[in-house]
């Protein structure tokens, strides 16, 4: 069995890791940390896990975590980068679900997160954990930076167009909407039911922290810089992301439906829908799957791509486990065969 440690197990990504790993055929969670809940049983805080775990939360201990085969960080930013270097030195393999190691340039990271990066030397060892792009590098990695939820939906939606140079890379637009769980489990007035229900709003229009991560990944695929206008929105629901992507077409000779179907034909967690069928957040709820469809309205020069994921699964914990499977040479879909929940 694969021994798993989780740092920061009380947030939504932490409990989602526990839910998915509970049915993983080869994984056993042996350590889960929380300074605030140390000593409390996991199934006391999360009764949905009763009968699956006998664990209690504990204080982070490098020796205990280093004895694990894989350590997940399900923490806010500026936590992993203070502990990961010591774990790597002790021989641990780490998957970080926070933003600490996603952006390769430490100065760029500091500009968006408002503080110096605590371990910039480790950034060189981090592999960006989008399997559909970096599968071979992930397999040999000691540190994987699991992509953000918005970046996953946007990148998977635009990658084929940029890789085949079908669209202008300097005129990309992403209008994305997320459920409130994307903001985390902390108490905020803006996330209260009475504040969110029956409403729909944009936020961080002048610049969202996920923008440099998205542009970095898309530039890698395009082989040149890209420029993206990214506008996130808050939906009055718990889970799910719907990204509507716009790009200016410069090559009209390519059959776009065939391009996407061929590009993702062998990807177990990307589903290109038939032409004329549009993705919905409810059909990917609870599943480690991205559903994509595309259109060229009125036959003009704007390509519209629609991409949906569950922000807590393919956008976070499910993708992290997908990375774990790749790193350990396990079947990539092990523990991730859940079907989306309907209704």
TrEMBL record:
Reactions mediated catalytically: N-acetyl-L-glutamate 5-semialdehyde + phosphate + NADP(+) = N-acetyl-L-glutamyl 5-phosphate + NADPH + H(+)
SUPFAM superfamilies reported in the protein's UniProt record: Glyceraldehyde-3-phosphate dehydrogenase-like, C-terminal domain (SSF55347), NAD(P)-binding Rossmann-fold domains (SSF51735)
Subcellular location: Cytoplasm
Coiled coil location: none
Tagged with keyword Oxidoreductase: yes
SMART domains recorded: Semialdhyde_dh
Chief location category: cytoplasm
Ranges of residues in domain Semialdehyde dehydrogenase NAD-binding: 3-141
HAMAP family registered for this protein in UniProt: ArgC_type1
NCBIfam families: argC
Name of the featured protein: N-acetyl-gamma-glutamyl-phosphate reductase
Organism encoding this protein: Pseudohalioglobus lutimaris
Designated gene of the protein: argC
């Amino acid at each position: 069995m694969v021994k798993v440690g989780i740092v920061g197990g009380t947030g939504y990504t932490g409990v989602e890791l526990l839910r998915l790993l509970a049915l993983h055929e080869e994984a056993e969670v042996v350590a889960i940390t929380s300074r605030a809940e140390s000593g409390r049983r996991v199934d006391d805080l999360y009764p949905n896990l009763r009968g699956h775990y006998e664990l209690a939360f504990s204080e982070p201990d490098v020796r205990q975590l280093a004895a694990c085969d894989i350590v997940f960080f399900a923490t806010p930013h500026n936590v992993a980068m203070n502990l990961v270097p010591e774990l790597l030195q002790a021989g641990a393999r780490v998957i970080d679900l926070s933003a600490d190691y996603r952006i390769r340039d430490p100065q760029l990271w500091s500009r968006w997160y408002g503080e110096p990066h605590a371990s910039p030397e480790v950034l060189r060892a981090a592999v960006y954990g989008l399997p559909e792009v970096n599968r071979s590098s992930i397999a040999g990695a000691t540190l994987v930076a699991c992509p953000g939820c918005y970046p996953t939906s946007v990148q998977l939606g635009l990658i084929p167009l940029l890789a085949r140079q079908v669209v202008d890379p300097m005129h990309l637009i992403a209008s994305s909407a997320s459920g409130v769980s994307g903001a985390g489990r902390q108490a905020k007035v803006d996330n209260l039911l009475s504040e969110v229900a029956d409403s729909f709003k944009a936020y961080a229009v002048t610049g969202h922290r996920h923008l440099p991560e998205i542009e970095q990944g898309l530039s890698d695929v395009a082989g040149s810089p890209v420029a993206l206008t990214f506008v996130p929105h808050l939906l009055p629901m718990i889970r799910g992301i719907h990204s509507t992507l716009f790009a200016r077409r410069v090559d009209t000779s390519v059959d776009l439906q065939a391009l996407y179907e061929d590009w993702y034909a062998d990807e177990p967690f990307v589903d290109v829908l038939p032409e004329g069928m549009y993705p919905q957040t409810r059909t990917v709820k609870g599943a480690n799957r991205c559903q994509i469809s595309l259109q060229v309205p009125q036959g003009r020069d704007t390509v519209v791509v629609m991409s949906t994921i569950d922000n807590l699964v393919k956008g976070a914990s499910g993708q992290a486990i997908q990375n774990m499977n790749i790193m350990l040479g396990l079947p990539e879909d092990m523990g991730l065969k859940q079907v989306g929940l309907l209704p």
